[in-house]
Amino acid sequence: METFGDDDCPKGHMEILFEDVRVPASNMLWGEGRGFEIAQLRLGPGRIHHCMRMIGQAERALSHMCRRATARTAFGQKLAEMGSVVQQIAECRSEIDQARLLVREAADRMDRLGNRDHYTRKLLSLVKAVVPAMTQRVVDRAMQLHGGLGGSQDSCLPAAFVAARNLRWADGPDEVHWRTAGRLELSYQRKESPLFQIELYEHDKRKPFRAKL
């Protein structure tokens, strides 16, 4: 298959066409109707794996960004001397480190409690929604700093950008993971937050407050 107009062979995405295929019952895995259950068992570790690779690509993109900033001169000064460029580098560093901590917490929680724990499930949805989008932003900044070179075949950045963008819908789009994380957080808050265990404040029982101009 082609992704973003580029041939994804030999190890990328593909189409498999089955015609008149019969599979013996003896070849059934797990049990009838349990295919989704099998897939769910590997999704947790798989998401951690994907996000670890994405963080690695973001780190590589940031290194290319810093190297370009110190080597390229524009308008009489190095890019690394321009405030806007320095800020972008700092933002990339911050976003990568935040994402890494989230992935580490999810991996630790999954190792100790498995991926059926509600809090672990929330973390797995969060890392899948957060990390590929973060990597896409970091790589995009690096490409912008490289100019035309950043989008050419002489750079590794285009492949990293495509990989991050593809992962934002692979294994479920961002919106699905945000929805899952939000619903699990609401469920947790209703059960655990002390604010849900007390009576409403008196002013909450009144009619909606109308501001007077």
TrEMBL record:
Gene3D superfamilies: Butyryl-CoA Dehydrogenase, subunit A, domain 2, Butyryl-CoA Dehydrogenase, subunit A, domain 3. InterPro entries: Acyl-CoA_dehydrogenase (IPR050741), Acyl-CoA_Oxase/DH_mid-dom_sf (IPR046373), AcylCo_DH-like_C (IPR036250), AcylCo_DH/oxidase_C (IPR009075). GO terms for cellular component: cytoplasm. It comes from the Eukaryota. Residues 89-116 form a coiled coil. Residues 33-183 form the Acyl-CoA dehydrogenase/oxidase C-terminal domain. One of its GO terms (molecular function) is acyl-CoA dehydrogenase activity. Keywords: Coiled coil, Flavoprotein, Oxidoreductase. One of its GO terms (biological process) is fatty acid beta-oxidation using acyl-CoA dehydrogenase. This is IBR3 protein. The lineage of its organism: Eukaryota, Sar, Alveolata, Dinophyceae, Suessiales.
